[in-house]
Amino acid sequence: MTAGTERNGVAVLPSTTVGVPRENAEGERRVALVPKAVEKLRSRGVEVVLEPGAGTGALIPDEAYTAAGARLGDPWVCDVVVTVGPPGPPEIGKLSRGATLIGFLGPATSPETMTALREAGVQAFAMESIPRISRAQAMDALSSQANVAGYKAVLAAAEHSTRFFPMLTTAAGTVKPATALVLGVGVAGLQALATAKRLGARTTGYDVRPEVADQVRSLGAQWLDLGIEAVGEGGYARELTDEERAMQQQRLEEAITGFDVVVTTANVPGRTAPTLVTAAAVEGMRPGSVVVDMAGESGGNCAASEAGRTVVRHDVTIVSPLNLPATMPEHASELYARNVSALLELMVDEHGTLAPDFSDEVLAASCVTRAEA
């Protein structure tokens, strides 16, 4: 950690050091801060230390970081370490006692990580725990990354589809546009609808939260009304009752068979993803149709999907990609870096010293472990 110095005989408080390590998870190409974010933090008196090669996956060379004011070194000894994914036990062991960690940490799904951080005396802030309130929108990493995922999911559907998305009028005749259904219209679902519409498909959205129907229609899509509502807290849907789930599956099975493309995005935080596309629904779809299951990491919305794989069942292609934002590392990293730097700016004072105020609801909600006093 940075030691205090004197300037013109006046004591100067040490600035906060923020470390940016290289992500080690398989397939992870994002980086927690980009050079523009480094410049912004430097203007606040914060020193940024980059692990050499941290930006390589996002195609950002070390030279771009040093030009922005970062220095190369060991990020794990810094006051604050910012990551994309959760660090493993070896990395947690490198953190200084009393250090602060910021990243997607899985507080609801990875209790072993929380235990390790508490035992290491680390103060941790989970990006997925940022409350979804107006003043925290700039820090909402779940939304920024869901936008990327929703966009890329539709591109995956188009790649695997045996049909054109747009209507084409040719000398050989007219080709009808593909029909696309998006199940779950949060941030990812709305982006998926918008992207499918841009590609020329006839789009329809469904969600158990009726209040999003107007958002779906505002994108030029139709609203699929199954007569089931499940409004939850924090912008999420609540878990359905057994009776509601059975009714939903029956009505969805009937509806799904009429679409060329189905994109599913439904997740309940901390729980197994609900099954929306049953095996019977897949069997009833036209040959050549595509299902893109964005919930594969939490169990999947499609009964026939296999997490991380593309399979074909009854001549229907089921794609279950993992970590879609990492497949667009440049823009995904840029958006995530804005989220992280906005949170950091809330945590440092005018001198660039780390001073989180836990009476602030954003910091109180996102802090998942506290360092020992």
Notes on the structure:
- By secondary structure, the chain is of the alpha/beta class.
- The chain has two domains: 5-129 and 348-369, NAD(P)-binding Rossmann-like Domain (Rossmann fold, 3-Layer(aba) Sandwich), CATH 3.40.50; 148-326, NAD(P)-binding Rossmann-like Domain (Rossmann fold), CATH 3.40.50.720.
- It has eleven helices and 18 strands.
- The strands form four sheets. Strands 5-4-3-6-7-8-18 form a seven-stranded mixed β-sheet.
- Helix 3 links the parallel strand 6 and strand 7 (100-103).
- Helix 1 runs parallel beside helix 10 (329-347) and helix 5 (141-160) runs parallel beside helix 6.
- The longest helix has 20 residues, at 141-160.
- It is elongated and about 65 Å long.
- Residues 1-13 have low confidence and may be disordered.
- Residues 158-320 form the Alanine dehydrogenase/pyridine nucleotide transhydrogenase NAD(H)-binding domain.
- GO terms for molecular function: oxidoreductase activity.
- Its EC number is 7.1.1.1.
- Residues 19-149 form the Alanine dehydrogenase/pyridine nucleotide transhydrogenase N-terminal domain.
- It is an enzyme of class 7 (translocase).
